[in-house]
Amino acid sequence: MKLIRTPRRGMSIALAATATLALVLPVAAADTVTQAVTAGTRSASVANLTLGAVAYSHSAQDSSGSMTLTADDSTGSNLGWNVTILSSAFVYSGGNSGSNIPAANFSLTSAAGPVRTAGQAVDALGVGGPKVPVISPVGTLDTARKTVQAMLTFGNGTYTQALGVSLSIPAQSAAGKYTGTLTTSITAAP
Amino acid sequence: MPHIDRSGRPLLGLLLAFAACLALTAPALASHEPPKLALTPVRESGQFFDLTLERGETQELQVEVANHGHESVLARTYAADGYTIINGGFAAKLFGEQTSGTTLWLEYPDEELTLGPAEGLTIDFSVTVPEKTPPGEYITALVAENVVPYSGSEQGSVAIEQVIRTVVAVAIDVPGPDRPALEIGAVGHKEAAGMSFVSFEVLNGGNVHLKPSGEFSLQDAGGTELASAKPVMDSVYAGTETLLEAPLSEALRSGGYCAELSLADEETGVTAATECLPFTIAAPVTEDPGAGDGSGTIPILQPAVDAVSGEPMLAALAALAGVLVLAALYLGLRRRRRRSESPQPA
């Protein structure tokens, strides 16, 4: 495998225009082969997780909340995309000999229709999207679930999607901090 | 000479110190953004690799990994097995998971790269179809992701970190006769978050990708239909199996049920169907009578407000407003008490 370092001048100009901090433009390396202006990227990430407060309990209990998925397609390719999310176990850290909460205890309980914040409108006919898959993606997040997708010629913009979540906390979970890792993937595939 | 109420001074000092702390910490929290990595096929018309290769043939390819964010990112790129997710669709296995099958056709070593803002890297790799490969459609994946999980802003007792991935499929068609096949397996049930999920195994044992759709029905033991749907699956890839999972709006009670599913792939014409397959939901296990109802007061989980990249300034301003309201109440009560204690005119 050969690696070729490629400074992205087109991208640099765009970033420089919007950055609030001074950017140091990458120094061209000796093996640079192209300076072509290329397309933007597709990206998706989750923010604003909120879960209800839960007190210590001898019984299992659920904590419900929400999070917001943001998906952006700035490639201009018109080829559509899919976003999946997957959770790890919630790893315990603290001084009370707690146990991890299994990934299967973290569930997606609702997936709202995506809302445009920039770019192409959501298909009013509900066909091209971006849209929630026909079979609802709700379920446990120990397996990857597709929460939103855009078909060919749709999804050229930025969209947010409200997701309901629930964490089932086992009985006698120790006081401390529980950290899960979400893997958020935006995918191009047939 | 005007009267000065000195009792307010310690509170005022406290408030000023609090405000100063906010001013110092808020900008640092707000500057953090999620990584924006791109993984783009080079000299390909689509966003993924769509190849037709004869057995024994090798093709040289290029993919570009780029950082579209404003901060340097320690990125990782690797090849991973592709698989069919629940209800159809493509996903790539996680970093470190065993690779197999079509992924082994790629010469694409794992790589960690530090990419500055607006910096990209072109990676050469190759695909070789083994000599005795049967004809059919094959698929694997390339992935780019942040190595250090993104954790956003300050977090509460339950927090999430994120690995943000861009996944590109490498789809390879080895020419030859199509042999589509579709099979529905066992029915299953599970419960989560107060809902029931009835599932069927769906197996694509053929050599072409399918997009099945059909009809689902759930009945109770007496044969009364409780739910029905017309599910439309996304791609079920050749040689893979997955689940079609029907979420119900509430949890089913204990007892006997049956569910049936029929599926058809419009493009190839293959179909599969089941009879109404029985399953039983056992009665819930009675809780330990001595377990109590959770009246303990130790707070273990706090609301994870703005756990990732929310609005730390908003949260801080709300806290400041709360402190100011408390201070005003305290001063008002103190003044009222002083008035009531002062001697009344005769």
Largest sheet of chain A: 6 strands, antiparallel
Parts with pLDDT < 50 across at least 5 consecutive residues of chain A: 12-37
**Helix residue percentage of chain B:** 10-25%
Counting DSSP H or I runs of 4 or more residues, the number of helices of chain A is: 1
Anisotropy-based shape of chain A:
elongated
Query: What proportion strand of chain A?
Result: 35-45%
Beta-strand residue fraction of chain B: 35-45%
Q: Biggest interface and its residues per chain? A: A-B, 97 and 98 residues
Your description of this structure?
The complex is a heterodimer of chains A (190) and B (346). Chain A has 190 residues and is mainly beta. Chain A has one helix and twelve strands; from the N terminus they run E-H-E-E-E-E-E-E-E-E-E-E-E. Chain A has one helix at 9-18, and strands spanning 3-7, 42-51, 54-55, 61-73, 81-87, 91-93, 106-111, 115-119, 139-140, 145-150, 157-169, 177-188. In chain A, strands 2, 4, 7, 8, 9 and 11 form a six-stranded antiparallel β-sheet that branches. A four-stranded antiparallel β-sheet of chain A has the order 6-12-5-10, with no helix packed on it. Chain A is elongated, with a radius of gyration of 21 Å. The model of chain A is unreliable at 12-37 (pLDDT under 50). Chain B has 346 residues and is an alpha+beta fold. In chain B, strand 13 and strand 14 form a beta hairpin. In chain B, helix 1 packs antiparallel against helix 2. Mean pLDDT of chain B is 81; it is low at 1-31 and 287-319. The chains are: A mainly beta (190), B alpha+beta (346). The interface between A and B is large, with 97 and 98 residues. Strand 12 (177-188) of chain A pairs parallel with strand 10 of chain B, so a sheet runs across the interface.
